[in-house]
Amino acid sequence: MSILKNRVIAVVAGTAVLGLATTTGAVAAKAITGADIKNFSITSADLASGSVTSAKIQNGTISATDLNADLKAKVNASAKNGTDGVDGKDGKDGAALADSFAGGGTIVDLGGSFKTRKTEVGTINLPEAGTYMINAFGFFDTVAADSVRTDGTHLQLAVRGPVSEADAFGQDFGTCFTSAFPAGDREATCQSVRVITVTEATELTVIGFGYNDDQSSTGSGSFTVTADVSAIKVG
Questions:
Q1: Element holding 188 (H helix, E strand)
Q2: 17, 124, 184, 202: which has the highest count of C-beta atoms within 10 A?
């Protein structure tokens, strides 16, 4: 082979190598993007173990349809109940009904001294020292439509403690009055609510009474009282 022919072959080969190097460099300089990858063309076999981490997965790109049946079952399975926690401290006792009374009778006397002319209709008991809420409701009626009476009668429901030398009328645990009793065969009510404290077991007396504006005793025996009284221990 002549020297000229050998030189031509060498030049051609060098040119080919140079072109190949130029093409390869261009491909290397341009990164492969998602557009260059066909769907499902890359499988788990193409990925090295640990090469895909959570940092490389964008939020929301993996959904339930991407999970296999075994993983779905584990995700959807109910967790086992945990152990019971330590019981908390017992709360304070709530309010409790200590005693109550429901009953009544005819108010024998009107006017004069409450001490001597009051009508006792019942009792309730506070069983021990403590604080109580006393609710007293009085319902008043006439004995008959034509009962003798005068205008301006105010009827009273009272709850009193024991009488003593220091308190001849008994400590007041709740008192209420009606307005002037209406004419005819009518009814009237009154109500009292008090919170009181006693230092020992105490019996309370439920009382019916009343006064006339003219200070007379007219209407004595003409009215009835029905009392509903309760004592609720609140402390």
A1: strand 187-198
A2: 124
AA letter at 105: G
* Each residue's pLDDT tens digit, 20-46: 445 555 545 566 766 677 776 777 677
Q: What is the DSSP letter of 110?
A: -
- Are the beta carbons of 104 and 226 closer than 8 angstroms? yes
- What kind and span of H or E run contains 231? strand 223-233
Give residues with Cβ within 8 angstroms of 128, minimum separation 6: 200, 201
Whether the full predicted model's pTM is greater than 0.85, yes or no, is: no
Task: Enumerate residues 6+ apart whose C-beta is below 8 A from 188.
Answer: 140, 155, 178, 179, 181, 182
Its sign, for the CA torsion 84, 87, 88, 92, is positive
- Is residue 209 within 8 A of residue 221, CB to CB? The reply is no
What tokens appear for 235 in the block?
């402390």
- Residue length, the chain? 235
Where b means 16+ CB within 10 Å and e means fewer, 159-170 reads bbbeeeeeeeeb
DSSP strands (E only) in 49-181: 96-107, 119-126, 130-142, 153-160, 172-177
Residue 136 contacts residue 174 (beta carbons within 8 Å) = yes
Nearest-angstrom CA–CA distance, 209 and 212: 11
Instruction: Judge whether 219 and 143 are in contact, CB under 8 Å.
Output: no
> Would the pLDDT of 139 be above 90?
yes
HSE-up of residue 88 (Cα within 13 Å, Cβ side): 3
